[in-house]
Amino acid sequence: MDLLKDLTESVITGNATRTVELTEKALDEGLSASQILNDGLIAAMEIVGVKFKNNEFYVPEMLIAARAMKAGLKILKPILVKGGIEPIGKFVVGTVKGDLHDIGKNLVSMMIEGAGFQVIDLGVDVPAEKFIAAVQENDAQIVGISALLTTTMVNMKEIIDAFEASGIRDSVKVVVGGAPLTDKFAKEIGADGYAQDAATAVEVVKGLIN
Amino acid sequence: MGFVEFKGARDFIVQRRKDLRFDRLAIPRKKDLVFGTAMHPVKTGRGLMIGNGLVYPELNFTLSAVQINDNTLPQITEQYKSIITEAIERAIHLESNGVVFEFETLMEMTLKPEIGVELVKVMNDICEDYYQRKGFKSEIRLTPNDIRDFERPPKMRTSPYLANMLELFERGAESGGDLLSIESTGGKEVFDEAVMMCDIRQVMFSLIVLGVRDMRFLWEKIVAIAQSQNKIPAGDTACGFANTAMMLADKSYIPKVFASVVRIITIVRTLVALEMGATGPDKDCGYEGPFLKAITGTPISMEGKTAACAHLSPVGNVAAACADLWSNESVQNLKLLGGMAPTVYLEQLEYDVRLFNAAIRSGEEKVLDLQALLVESDIHYDPQALILAPESVIAISEEVVKGKTYLQAAINGSLKGLEIIEEAVKNKELKLEEREKAWINRIREELSTMPIQEDKFIESVLPMIEEGKFIPEEYGL
Predict the structure, then answer these.
(1) Does A85 contact chain B (CB < 8 Å)?
(2) Which residue of A has its CA nearest to B108?
């Protein structure tokens, strides 16, 4: 459908104003909010993700596209909520306790949101209790934990153990990421997934939710 | 090549405080901007003469994955002891002229300064023992964390964490830290988003409006501590800014051209430490070091290919072109086939400095030949390497010192950097992806339309920054 194609294009080019216009037009023409979301906005971000992975887009172009997508989503959200349509999943994310690095985490948050998830970003220096509270309050299915130091990555196991002790471990999937981490480390500490970088994080998270 | 007359560090501090801004180059000639020699060498407590005709290795190390608490402290202390002991033993075996050991603390060691202080003492005792018994010269560079970052938005002046940092500087210097450094983070709360968006105006704001103010605030204190302890206020780096940009560019997240301009802007910010009385040697991860050396004549520490253990970079060889200390950035204390990783890296650094020092012994021509090869091997592949070539350093630094304000200095330097990059692309001397080339004009246009009066610049940028991102009063605004 041309309208959805134009909408996708406006997101890809980061044109927030046009994205809002086309989203409203699509609703006026009788398209459902979920069709506009899935076939317009999320489809656009999937293309953006591919362009980023293929080194066609830099991060700023991706962020501008994400902002345009959010602008369109803002129009659809009340309708989606009223219709009982939930996001694909809920993703709680934070940098582990003792660590202040957050650029990678912020990038992952943005990409996961663009993929249709609701993201609850807890920031940096996040203790286990805060992760647990956020999972319980939001009924989140996935937790992302980031660390950039060899001395803070060890705290990730503590968080996973705390999930176990509090009884939420079985209801949540844990994905970890950060420069000093490896897939082996992720398995050793009992994580469900490891994201090597922001570009692969979306695939990993989507795989876990399925 | 003649060596310049040595001026003691204390004399230099006094001289610099009279002249708060540098308005000309201390080293205006390319052939004088070389490794091993600085106009104002620095003498350490145990007699290392940094920038006085020898390059020394600077070994930087960290722990492998371990939690830091009262239970693990004895084991951690033993690790640091063995790192220093084994490295010194290997250095002596290789007949090294001397070593600087950088103790870059981990968060817990700054949060609880007594931990950091104790570790400085333990390591310094070993250095002193080898000095007394065997005449081997080594020093500790103490680099506390900037933990003001723990709060968001950070309180740069009123944070309770500031006291912990300053206590570690004071007591750490007392316990044997001879060179005092930090990677301060003033402005980072604005920079992080700005660099992701490749927003040069907000980058400029973070470094030149916020960063400069924080540097003046912090370095007045650090210099005072150093003077009271008769220690060396060595310098700061914009690691969290320009190296973050470099890492993002390496992953193709942002253009390399953009990262190059960020590096140039950090010159003006990091220079403030020297304006406030720092003497060098500047810290290893500050790739803005060569520019500081050209402007102030102070010695610098640099890292290149031997920093690959900590991070990859496009400047592996050219980074050594003007180095007075040659570093490995940071290596984990792990067992490799050749031995413990810090000892292995000490050896790598020592072999590199042997090469530099052999060139110095052989005379000016050999120094310039070796430097030319270090430069030529890197500068055609990445603009971040190109701007580190000595001729680029001097050309950019000349424009920086022409600026009557910090903002103008940063804009001048950045425009010159873009001109150098563009010229090299035009002459097919620099490989640049097509999508990078558009950014040269994009950034140039932004720089050229920036107000150069600071109040007008602040007025133009503030509406673009999310409210609550930073606390103006914490920067004296």
Answers:
(1) no
(2) A98
* Structure token pair of residue A69: 């997508």
Question: Which residue, among B179, B177, B147, has the nearest Cα to B163 in the 3D structure?
Answer: B147
**Do residues B295 and B26 lie in contact, with contact meaning Cβ atoms separated by under 8 Å?**
yes
Cβ atoms A202, A49 nearer than 8 A: yes
Model confidence, pTM:
0.92
pLDDT digits (tens, 9 = 90+) for A69-89: 999 999 999 999 898 888 889
Amino acid sitting at position B333? N
- Domain count of chain A? 2
Six-digit token string for B128:
């002193």
3-state secondary structure of B282: strand
Q: Same structural domain for residues A105 and A169?
A: yes
* Contact predicate B279/B13, CB 8 Å: yes
Element (H, E) at B296: helix B289-296
Strand partners, B375: none
By Cβ distance, the residue of A98, A123, A197 closest to B107 is: A98
- Is this complex scored with an ipTM above 0.90? no
A47 and A23 in one domain?
yes
* Same-domain check for residues A56 and A99: no
Inter-chain CB proximity A60 and B192 less than 8 Å: no
Q: Do A32 and A100 sit in the same domain of this protein?
A: no
Residue B170 corresponds to which tokens in the numbers above? Answer: 């004071």
Q: Give chain B positions within 8 Å (CB) of A111.
A: none
Decide: helix, strand or coil at residue B346.
helix
Q: What is the DSSP string of B147-208?
A: GGGGSSS--TTT-THHHHHHHHHHHHHHTTEEEEEE---TTHHHHHHHHHTT-HHHHHIIII
Per-block mean pLDDT, blocks of 10 residues, chain B (477 long):
35 43 92 97 96 98 86 94 98 98 94 96 98 98 94 94 97 97 97 95 98 97 96 97 95 96 98 96 97 97 96 96 97 95 98 98 98 98 98 98 95 98 98 94 97 94 94 96
Which one, of B211, B234, B213, B210, lies nearest residue B222 by Cα?
B234
Domain CATH for A53: 1.10.1240.10
Domain that holds residue A49: 2-82
- Count Cβ atoms within 10 A of the Cβ of residue B230 and give its class: 0-12 exposed, 13-18 middle, 19 or more buried: exposed
Strands B301-303 and A173-177: unpaired
Same domain (yes/no): A74, A102: no
Asked if A153 and B150 come within 8 Å (Cβ–Cβ), the reply is: no
Tally the residues of chain B: 477
Overall CATH class of domain B9-475: alpha beta
